[in-house]
Amino acid sequence: MPRLPLLVAVEPLQRERDVLAIMQCVALDADVFPYPSADFTSRSRRDRVWVAREPGGPRPARVVGFLAARIGDDLVRVQGLAVDPAARQRGIGRALLRGCLRSEMTAGARAVELSVSVVNRPALALYASEGFDVVARVRDHYPARAYGGQRDAFYMRLTL
Predict the structure, then answer these.
(1) Prediction pTM value
(2) What domains does the chain contain, in order, with CATH numbers?
(3) CA-CA-CA-CA dihedral for 33, 34, 37, 41, to nearest 10
(4) Model pLDDT for residues 104-121, shown as the tens digit of each residue
(5) Taking the chain, what is the end-to-end CA distance rounded to the nearest angstrom?
């Protein structure tokens, strides 16, 4: 039976005020990626993180996903998008991606770039459904221990 979407609140990470959310992002990052995807404590205005929080409960609610990006003049470079394994396939990754795009389009971004493992079928399907195109296959992008030994990534781009 298909899982119902999980309504989440997507918001920018408030690094200076939400240490608990930073720690939840670091833990999720370590669980999902073979190496750190982002610096969640960066004070650079170019480094941004959006978090998805589970519905209900007291504030601050638990982080169930994040999208970390580095912002250029008119380019968004997604460094990592992760969703808690227990909450996957419920629209959280899509909500994070759209929250980031909405925010950065308003700020003048013209394109979004990212790299994704060639074996990460759910992520590839998400990005394709949101309009990203595969620009190139990057050989040996990931360390040998990553993704079952598959080191290649697709470089993908979305023009806004």
Answers:
(1) 0.91
(2) 9-159 (3.40.630.30)
(3) 100
(4) 988 889 999 999 999 999
(5) 35
